[in-house]
């Protein structure tokens, strides 16, 4: 009888433990981009650590992800997401068209992840050397509802262009854009992603096998486009370089950079946010081994935007104070 009671108590404790684990859906991006693999690995880490029943899903990325946080969280399920900072800022302040009148004020940062690099990909010999050369060309500005699309449209605006200046505009994700460029139905495409992005690595290798070479359009760090971004999004938009050995380009490519955020809703319980953050940073080696861009996911980088426009989740802040990343 005593043994039976002990077994019942053990099952009750186990059941309570499972009940306390939040169901978390990680909204990521398209296959071929870094977000998808980062989110998938994070879900695996959280499941193994027992801090959540987590799964990653493919999406169009940042803007769609922020909409999911605002509209789908509830009933014991919490949507978290990988997002670009300018998209998050425009959604949080209600400046983005899809958030006008209903800003994404429930968004909370769990941690900063790694910098995205703006890729404007073309083939050498396509007559595209500068952003202005996109005029009259067939160009993809990224999937609808993606952070890439936000980056692309703002870049064009700063350069005095719009999609109306293209010969044809497409709105494709990384993998679809790379395929179209390789097949010759697209002249160039925008992509905002970590280094390396698998779809572009494959594109560069495919072009090389045909005796061609990938070209990445440079963004002058002292030019109008870069200065416009840095004024509009101080602290989160900057400049960096895509080294030539990443994709086998002929030269290093200066471009825009954007620090990605991992965000969750304010409704996520503090204990859950603390546990998710703790599990992430106690398993960084797993994340960094699986996703090259995650080498920049560190305690120091994670808190670099504390005090900015978008608040951090209190559960995450508690963990960062506990380990000394914040005072």
UniProtKB/TrEMBL annotation:
It comes from the Bacteria. InterPro entries: TRAP_TAXI. Gene3D superfamilies: Periplasmic binding protein-like II (3.40.190.10). Pfam families: NMT1_3. NCBIfam families: TRAP_TAXI (TIGR02122). This is TAXI family TRAP transporter solute-binding subunit.
């Amino acid at each position: 009888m005593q043994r039976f009671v002990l077994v019942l108590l053990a099952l009750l404790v186990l059941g309570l433990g499972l009940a306390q684990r939040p169901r978390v859906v990680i909204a990521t991006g398209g296959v071929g981009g870094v977000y998808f693999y980062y989110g998938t690995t994070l879900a695996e880490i959280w499941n193994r650590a027992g801090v959540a029943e987590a799964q990653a899903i493919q999406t169009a990325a940042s803007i769609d992800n922020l909409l999911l946080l605002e509209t789908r969280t509830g009933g014991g399920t919490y949507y978290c997401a990988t997002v670009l900072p300018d998209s998050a800022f425009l959604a949080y302040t209600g400046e983005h068209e899809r958030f006008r009148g209903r800003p994404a004020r429930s968004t909370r940062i769990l941690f900063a992840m790694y910098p995205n690099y703006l890729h404007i990909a073309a083939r050498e010999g396509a007559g595209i050397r500068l952003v202005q050369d996109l005029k009259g060309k067939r160009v993809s500005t990224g999937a609808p509802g993606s952070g890439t699309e936000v980056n692309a449209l703002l870049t064009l605006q700063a350069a005095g262009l719009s999609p109306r200046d293209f010969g044809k505009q497409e709105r494709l994700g990384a993998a679809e854009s790379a395929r179209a460029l390789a097949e010759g139905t697209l002249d160039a495409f925008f992509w905002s992603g970590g280094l390396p992005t698998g779809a572009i690595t494959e594109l560069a290798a495919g072009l090389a096998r045909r005796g061609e070479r990938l070209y990445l359009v440079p963004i002058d760090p002292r030019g109008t486009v870069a200065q416009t971004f840095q004024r509009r999004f101080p602290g989160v938009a900057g400049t960096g370089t895509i080294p030539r050995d990443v994709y086998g380009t002929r030269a290093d490519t200066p471009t825009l950079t954007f620090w990605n955020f991992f965000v969750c809703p304010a409704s996520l319980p503090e204990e859950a946010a603390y546990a998710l953050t703790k599990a992430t940073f106690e398993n960084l080696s797993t994340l960094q081994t699986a996703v090259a861009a995650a080498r920049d996911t560190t305690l120091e980088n994670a808190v670099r935007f504390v005090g900015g426009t978008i608040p951090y989740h209190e559960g995450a802040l508690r963990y960062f104070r506990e380990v000394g990343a914040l005072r």
